[in-house]
Amino acid sequence: MPQRSTNEDSGRQRRQGNQYRVTDSEIEQFSEAGYLTLNEFLTEEELATLDPWFDHFVQGREPGMNKDFCDMSQPYGTPIEEFRLVNAMLPSKYRPELVDNIFFQLAQSVANQLYAGTAVMDYEQFLAKKPQKENAEFAMHQDLGYWPKTENTWTATFSLALSDSDLENGCLQVCPGTNKEPELRSHQPKDDGRDASHTLIIESKPTDRLVYLPVKRGAVTIHDERIVHGSGGNTSEQWRKTYVMAFRDEETVRQERAMGFTHSHNDNINWDDVIH
Fold this sequence. Notes:
The chain is of the alpha+beta class. The protein is 20% helix and 25% strand. The protein has a seven-stranded antiparallel sheet. The chain has a five-stranded mixed sheet with strand order 1-13-10-15-8, with no helix packed on it. The longest helix has 15 residues, at 44-58.
């Protein structure tokens, strides 16, 4: 039976300005189990500064995004009116007003605590599941399966809840400990190759233990690059809204960019050359 995981000890008492303190036990959990949940990461006032930008992007109002605005559950070219799982990549690239926003500042402070090195923001995205879209599913995967070969793969991916996230609207689900598997699992395109759709899928193992991560608006989940994770569809009457931001080693990001990889879906990449 899948379990639910929360972190009742975290909350606003951890905040001091643009810093959010994590404990030694949380740092150990992230390293060993591959994920964390932190409550009350942003205040309601801070969330309100992000909401209009989120709506701007997921409603398709930002021009010139091409494949960076897409449905992550369907092939590229799906009409916007048929979107289920709306994805807007690299919002601060398109709108400099989002650079150095409060979510970035807080996530950077936690990434600095989780990583014994220099971690920098690698990419970000807005994700939204439309109401009553049972097929707005994010297939189970490992993030590292999407990315080029680099020497250091360390990653902390922060998912900020801009709406309450629960089982009904498709909250994040993880398989703790799969980040410790010695080999990355095989990932296959969901549709006809990476040029047709960004989405990859993997096969589950009988030993996979699923844990749900329901959170309230303003909380974050954090996961690493190797943990098996995904999310179900949205059967509720409300949108599920998430702001994702990933931090990686500074040299890793430099190596990615040297390959021409920016996490934009518009990158011109020979996937056979760069993917694990």
